[in-house]
Structures are given as C-alpha cells and as structure tokens.
Amino acid sequence: MTSEITLFVNPTAGRGRGAHVAQPAASAFRAAGFSVRTVIGQDPGDALARARAAVADGTGALVAVGGDGIAHLALQAVAGTDTPLGLVAVGTGNDFARALGLPVRDPAAAARLIAEGLKDDGVRDIDLGRVGERWFGTVLASGFDSRVNDRGNRMRWPVGRFKYDLAMIAELAAFRPFPYRLTLDDGEVREIEATLVAVGNGSSYGGGMRICPGADLTDGLFDITVVGDCSRRTLLRVFPTVYRGGHVDHPKVTVHRAARVEIAADGITGYADGEPLGPLPVSVRCVPGAVRVVGR
After folding, report:
1. CATH (domain of 29)
2. DSSP secondary structure string, 238-293?
3. Do 22 and 10 meet the contact criterion of CB atoms below 8 Å apart?
4. Are residues 104 and 156 both part of a single domain?
5. Same domain, 74 and 201
6. Where is the signal peptide (predicted)?
7. 283 shares a domain with 156
8. What span, in angstroms and rounded, lies between the C-alpha atoms of 281 and 265?
9. Are 225 and 255 a contacting pair, CB within 8 Å?
10. Which residues pair with 269 in a beta bridge?
11. Mean pLDDT, to the nearest integer, of 65-94?
C-alpha cells in the first residue's frame, strides 16, 4: 500500500468544522508516517470527480472529513474498488462513523486509529446498499421521517438541527399513515399502511436513532423496519425509544430481513445516508463486501 492518503474534505460540515479539523487530522497522519493530499471540491459533482481521480491514481486510502453527507459521497468513489475508506467524523449525525466504531468529533483520535488500521491490516470488507448507481452505508428512509427531511430542507430558517425539530412538529400536525407496496426478495407484493419503512444496512440514522438496531454490516442482508399504521399519540410515545432500539418491541413495529427490497408509495421521497434519492418507488439491493473500510 502506498504511504500517501487523500483527505476528502467537506468544508461546511458541522457548521464549518470540516475545513478546520482537517488540519489536526492531517497532522496525525503525517506523524504516523503518511503523506497527505487534500481534495476539496467546488460542489458535490466536482468533489466526487476529484475523489474518483485520487482513487484511480492509486491513493492508499480515501479519508472523508465531515459528516454523513461527505461519507456518502466518498462511498460513490471507493465502492467496488480496493481503496480503503476512513472517516473523520465532524458532522451533525455521524451515523456511519459510529457503525464503524470510529471516534466522533475527535479528528486527531480518528486519524490515529485509521493510521494504525492501515499499518496493521485493520481493513475489513462490509456490505453496502445500492439503488441504481447510488451506494449507501447506513439506512434508506421513507415515510414520516423522509417527510420531515423534505420539510426541513425547504426551510431557510432556523439553521442546524433545530429546523428539523420544527419540521417534525409541523409533520406531526398533518400526520397520517401512507399506503405502501413492499416486496422482499422475490416474494409477493405486500400492500400495507405504514408510518415509515426503513431499510437498514447499518443500524442508525439521524444522529443515533437506532431505527434498525439488529442490522449487521457484514451479513449480506438488510434489516427492514416497518412502523405500521399507528396513531399520532402512539408515534409520540414510541419515538423516544428509537434511540435505544426499543421501538422494535412495540406491536405496531415489524422487522424483516432480505437482500432485495422494492418500496413504492405515492408522494414519498427516499433518503439514503440522509441524502435524497428521489421519489419512490425504489429497488434496493444489498451488495456483500462492497467496500473496504478502516474501523474497529
């Protein structure tokens, strides 16, 4: 493996922390004996082109500095290649870094752990989800949670996570279950009323909400969490338990396991790793060992 690594930096992650914390991460890598080059794109398309060029040039690892958004973009560059991915997580959610056992909001510690892993054969293969040509590492969300995302993304004020709290309150006021058509592997089409359907390669989204608590990054299967046609009162009662994964014990929640999933519902957007995929329907498949990662 070459001793050069590439830092793939989102300068706006964590309200500007991305660009700032790239420096201590780079210093930690250099102290471990690596040479470092930095990639910062003008926009997501330019950034991805630069990351893909670094991978094609044989960089020893691509290390994304930012949150789940830059991690998602980095996956598009390294999936299906031999180039390892590391994450220096300084964003808002950081769910992919948590799934890999990497430090969060401690760039020097994350860089040291990644450097040790690259030196000591601490690289492993994990599964990814794929929708068309898009890869994702954590969760594909649809339903109430994606409607909250839609509304929050349209809001210009306030900034940060608080706008999504307000978006959730607004969506609760208009809450209703949605008619879904769900197909698992090659089974029959299930027509259901559901509050949300989440397809988990990893266990959490939204900064630690363990929507698919049993998901395993290496088993070749998704965990699919379906929250049924619950009332607003039930949703409010069950929601706080998502952070520990306790919602799966509620009678309105079912969990399925499958390698391929088709989800259809009118007026619903799919989000993967917190990034919009576009309106349903979507066809999702789990690709075993699709990416090499550095983590615990």
Report:
1. 3.40.50.10330
2. HGGGGGGTGGGGSTTEEEEEESEEEEE-TT-EEEETTEEEEESPEEEEEEEEEEEE
3. no
4. no
5. no
6. none
7. yes
8. 6
9. yes
10. 279
11. 94
Residues involved in catalysis: 275
Same-domain check for residues 26 and 140:
no
Tell me: do 281 and 147 sit in the same domain.
yes
Kindly report the backbone phi and psi dihedral angles of residue 184, in degrees, each rounded to the nearest multiple of 5, phi listed first: -110, 125
Same domain (yes/no): 194, 76: no
Please tell me the total number of residues recorded for the chain in this structure: 296
* DSSP structure class, residue 239: G
Encoded amino acid at 218, one letter: T
* Tens of pLDDT, residues 87-114: 999 988 899 999 999 999 999 999 999 9
**CA Rg, the chain, in Å?**
19
Segment 114-136, tens digit of pLDDT: 999 999 989 999 999 999 999 99
**Nearest to residue 195, comparing CAs of 179, 174, 181?**
179
Of 266, 295, 296, the C-alpha closest to 280 is 266
| Cα–Cα distance measured from residue 73 to residue 66, given in angstroms and rounded to the nearest whole number | 11
Q: How many domains does the chain have?
A: 2
Q: Give CA–CA dist 219/273, Å, rounded.
A: 19
Angle between helices 68-78 and 44-56 (to 10 degrees): 40
Q: Domain range spanning residue 107?
A: 4-121
Same-domain pairing of 155 and 278: yes
- Segment holding 147, helix H or strand E: helix 144-154
Judge contact between 40 and 51, C-beta under 8 A.
no
How many angstroms separate the CA atoms of 199 and 124, rounded?
Answer: 22
Distance CA 281, CA 296 (A): 35
